[in-house]
Amino acid sequence: MPFNLSSAFGIHEQALLVRAKRAEVLAQNLANADTPGYKAQDIDFAAALSQASSMNDGLAATHATHIKGFNETGMEGVMLQYRMPLQPSIDGNTVDSHLEKARFTENAIQYETSLTFLDGKIKSLLRAIRGE
Amino acid sequence: MASFNIFEIAGSGMSAQMIRLNTTASNIANAESISSSTEQTYRARHPVFSAVLADQMGGATAGVRVDGIVESQAALRKEYNPDHPMADEDGYIHMPNVNVIEEMANMISASRAYQTNIEVINTAKQLMLRTLNLGQ
Fold it and tell me: What percentage of residues in chain A have a pLDDT greater than 90?
């Protein structure tokens, strides 16, 4: 049976990267909760994930046997979008701490979900290798 | 959590809020510091925050920084009290323009924001540790 190790983990590998990036953006919003004029940002997860899963690095693979590299910072082009404020404040800040906190927690749980899936995949691969 | 950026971002938030707490403490401590001239009188101090923006995703670390600390331009309080040892020749004493109620509100806001940043760091730490233990 042909088996490709790099595709064994499915989309979870990219999902994890996008989730980590999103956590960073949300942490930035929370750190700037009291900064005048700061505009809250977020990642469009679906768009970022489809970009991350189609990405490769800047190295050109000119031959079929060339190994494709892995580029962790391949999400440089992912567009950050500004949030529409529900209650704009007079100093121009659009961070709603409670909403951002809720999104941060949600994102953390989704990160953990991806981790659990990956954990299961790795464990089953190990079991197959050991032949238990 | 591919990188440690999140710790720097939340750390910059904590440090900025700590400076805000320090200025608040200084303002409250000096709320009743009387002097005999307007020049010598303490004025309420407030930090000015500004965002450090990453140029794009994956760019430099982003966070918040304190641009500076400004003194309040609100009018100082003047009180007629000729018996006071600090009174000027007209019998007035000068008191700082610190609004203690405003400062208390500021303090609560700063401490909540500080807590939020700590929670962010804690969550990120847990997720990173779980990532390290992947497959074990």
Answer: 31
Contacts of B128 in chain A (CB under 8 A): none
Distances in whole angstroms, Cα of residue A58 to Cα of each of A61, A74, B129: 9, 9, 30
How high is the mean pLDDT of chain B? 88
Number of folded domains in chain B? 1
Integer-rounded Cα radius of gyration of chain B: 22
Q: How distant is the alpha carbon of residue B69 from its chain centre?
A: 9
Return the pLDDT at B55.
Answer: 57
For A122, the closest of B13, B48, B135 (CB atoms) is B135
pLDDT at A105 over 90: yes
Distance, in Å, from the CA atom of A89 to the CA atom of B117, rounded to the nearest integer, reads 21
Domain with B92 in it: 2-134
In this prediction the ipTM stands at 0.81
The pair of three-digit structure tokens given for residue B128, joined into one six-digit string = 């990173």
- Beta carbons of B13 and A112 less than 8 Å apart: no
